[in-house]
Amino acid sequence: MKRRRFPQTAPTTLPTGQRSILNSRWREATARQPELKKLLQVLLGIGGDFVVAPPFPDLDVEELIASGFVLGGPTVLKKGQVSKCHENAAALWPSRKYEIVAIGTGYALSGGLWRQHSWGILREGILETTHERIKYFGLALQGSRADRFAKVEAATETTLSGPVLHAEVSRN
Asked: What is d(CA 43, CA 70) in angstroms, rounded to the nearest whole number?
């Protein structure tokens, strides 16, 4: 069976300037972290047109490639802080607000673009805190791993979020 190739160029439906920036960031990210190319194959095999490069090295990449999965079910939207998905998901965990059973972290698809993202996982679906996505691909964090995610994210809220958090979670 022939393997499908997934060229990574930003969709032509994007404005030229944005397309150029996304392509440039992708080249820089894969130069720093070549394994992102494998993640790209996984994500584009599921759907979408482009994977937006994470702003910092994604220390969950190898685990996402080996163990990540599509999370499904109905999506419940509970608006949190804009562009603060990691912090929003972490803030839900200590009290299990809205009855979440886990924190999801990985990538989410919207507008044809996969972006690094975190969300709440309900017994039967997704708890989204920013805006609805089409698909969610990632890891389910529960127990002490979710506790560390929430603790580290709360501590990094005013500094770096995402990569610092994931590095701490992934090491244990």
From this structure: 10
Q: Where are the domains of the chain?
A: 7-172
Q: Are 151 and 117 in contact (CB under 8 A)?
A: no
As a whole number of angstroms, the distance between CA 107 and CA 61 comes to 10
CB 72 within 8 A of CB 128: no
Over residues 129-161, the pLDDT tens digits come to: 999 899 999 999 999 999 999 998 887 754 444
Residues 6+ apart with CB under 8 A from 144: 172
Tell me how far CA of residue 87 lies from CA of 107, 118, 125, 165, in angstroms: 15, 9, 20, 10
Pairing of strands 69-71, 135-141: antiparallel
Question: In 10 A of CB 7, how many CB atoms?
Answer: 6
In this prediction, residue 91 carries a pLDDT of 94
pLDDT at 167: 39
Number of C-beta neighbours around residue 69 at 10 A = 14
Give per-residue pLDDT as tens, 45-64. 999 989 999 999 998 999 99
- Which positions ≥6 away from 151 have C-beta within 8 Å? none
